[in-house]
Amino acid sequence: MKLVILTIFLSGCSALFVPQELSENYATMPGVECDAYEAVDGDLNTISDSTRIVISLPEKKSIRKIVIHNLNISNFIIYEYLGNEGQWRVIKSAKGNTQPRIEINTQVTTDKIRLFVSDTSGVSFVRPGIERDKDGFTHRVDAQVDARPQIQEIELYGLIDMPGKAKSKEPIF
């Protein structure tokens, strides 16, 4: 008996929900401004090496998913803009990332998203140089520095109702 009631209840509740899918990528819409255009140009073959990227949308959008395509981001923080100068709230921070495609499910309404990369998974070498030790002897050295981020693309998505697929509004019972 409980199973029958639960089945009836669940089938009735399905009439309340409209199927949804992801919107178009808000970051590639007309009017978007970004201080690292390569990160929002829709092309995975272009790379931004910025450690701080701000994406400004022409209007506030409800953002449900953020996708970051990258080659070496290890530690990062994603922020949402709260509407007043200097006011940002952390959406997600991560350390030790090894994934080339970072997916962040969220539920924010904003017109700006900021990415800050604090570490990468790699090092690069600068030109070799010559150093003298305290006794005057020269030594050849290679200098190692942290590699710059390699961000291929940042995508921002909302949800949209799927047209023509809404359930009928029949009574539950």
Strand-helix topology:
Elements: H1 2-13, E1 20-22, E2 33-34, E3 52-70, E4 73-81, E5 88-94, E6 101-120, E7 123-125, E8 129-132, E9 138-141, E10 144-146, E11 151-157, E12 159-161
Antiparallel strand pairs: 1-12, 2-3, 3-6, 3-11, 4-5, 4-6, 7-10, 8-9
Task: Describe the model.
The chain has one helix at residues 2-13, and strands at residues 20-22, 33-34, 52-70, 73-81, 88-94, 101-120, 123-125, 129-132, 138-141, 144-146, 151-157, 159-161. The protein is mainly β and 173 residues long. The protein has a single domain (18-131, 138-158), classed as Sandwich (Jelly Rolls). The strands form four sheets. Strands 2, 3, 4, 5, 6 and 11 form a six-stranded antiparallel β-sheet that branches. Strands 1-12 form a two-stranded antiparallel ribbon. A two-stranded antiparallel ribbon has the order 7-10. The longest helix is centred in the N-terminal third of the chain and has 12 residues, at 2-13. It is elongated, with a radius of gyration of 24 Å. It starts with a helix and ends in a 12-residue tail after the last strand.
